[in-house]
Amino acid sequence: MLLEPRRLSCLLRRLLEFALLAGIPLTLGTPLLLKDYYRIVFWMASRQSSSLFMIVLLMSTGMLLLVIVWEARKMLVSVDKNQPFVRANVQSLKRIALSALLIAGAYIIKSFLFPTFLTIVIALMTFVVGLFVSVMAQLFEQAVTVKEENDLTV
């Protein structure tokens, strides 16, 4: 194994913390970051409403992505404490699934208004991730129930 489990979860938690620290100002700064970009990009130059739509899309999906990163970080903290099968992780997985499905929905809407190949790929991938994480939440919920029953019998 490349890294022992404790080190791997710690490394991943640090990466998620960095993503949060970088993601918050990037998400909040989206209008400023994209203001000049849309003047340069030819297909958006004459369409003020489309650039506003893109800024709202990127900010809202950016915030949802920050929710995903935050929830994943919370789960890793519980893994580091040797308590992976707790109700809080089930709720985190449900929030991650909902956020991924909302991102998919936003990009599905975008694919009808401004269709690009990458938009369709993002929509499909986040939809699949949302469904997969939803199944994982159900699996974790069953594991938590079994663990709680076992804890009562001991």
What's a concise summary of this model?
The protein is an all-alpha fold. It contains five helices and no strands.
- Give the SSE string: HHHHH
The percentage of residues in β strands lies in under 5%
Shape: elongated
What's the number of extended β-strand segments?
0
Mean pLDDT: 89
Q: Which oligomeric state applies?
A: single chain
State the end-to-end CA separation.
33 Å
Helical stretch tally: 5
Helix content percent band: over 70%
Radius of gyration over all CA atoms, rounded? 19 Å
Give the biggest sheet: none
Class computed from helices, strands and strand pairing: mainly alpha
What attributes does this structure have?
single chain; 154 residues; mainly alpha; 5 helices; 86% helix
Report what the structure shows.
The protein has helices spanning 5-28, 30-40, 48-80, 87-113, 117-153. Helix 1 (5-28) runs antiparallel to helix 3 (48-80). The chain is built from 5 helices and no strands. The radius of gyration is 19 Å and the shape is elongated. It starts with a helix and ends with a helix. Helix content is 86%, strand content 0%. It is mainly α and 154 residues long. The model has no long low-confidence stretch (mean pLDDT 89).
